[in-house]
Amino acid sequence: MQINRISMKRRNTPAKEAILNVLSKADKAMSQDAIEEKITIDINRATIYRVLNRFCDDGILHKIIAESGKQYFAICLDCKEKHNHNHFHFRCTKCDTIECLPVEVNFSAPDGYLVTDMNCVLTGLCKECSTFL
Ligand SMILES: [Zn+2]
Ligand SMILES: [Zn+2]
Ligand SMILES: [Zn+2]
Fold it and tell me: In the chain, where are the structural domains located?
């Protein structure tokens, strides 16, 4: 079991590096398709999908789900072992991007509700797109 996990890790290393490299250069969240387009080495879709989800489990990336249901991925800034996200995301309908906003989501759930996940996405025009109105 242990050996298996190690060889698995090694096999995915180039894929991991390529994906992290693409995302760390982007200042916005990216969909799997967009990430795939930027990767220069040959990695199949299933591997990209697996690596992205592994990164989410490890607190390296977080996933944002748009109203369309499409998933986007962004680098976590200060998640150590556990995700710690209480910020809004913004989806621009014109340039079709999603970004993390430095705006805290502040709320308290009613008694008896235990919140384990949060997906706060605002939709509209981003800073760049709204300037040219
Ligand atoms: Zn995180
Ligand atoms: Zn925009
Ligand atoms: Zn975010």
Answer: 2-131
At 45 the three-state DSSP class reads helix
Q: What is the pLDDT of residue 86?
A: 84
Cα–Cα dist 20/83, whole Å: 17
pLDDT value of residue 12: 73
Centre of ligand 1 from the C-alpha of residue 131, in Å: 30
8-state DSSP, 37: H
Q: What is the number of the ligand closest to the CA of 83?
A: 1
For 8-23, what is the mean pLDDT?
Answer: 83
CA of 132 to the centre of ligand 1 (A): 33
Task: Give the fold, CATH level 3, of 2-131.
Answer: Arc Repressor Mutant, subunit A (1.10.10)
Residue 83 CA, ligand 1 centroid: distance in Å: 4
Distance CA 80, CA 78 (A): 6
Closest ligand to C-alpha of residue 87 is 3
| Interval 111-122: pLDDT, tens | 999 988 888 999
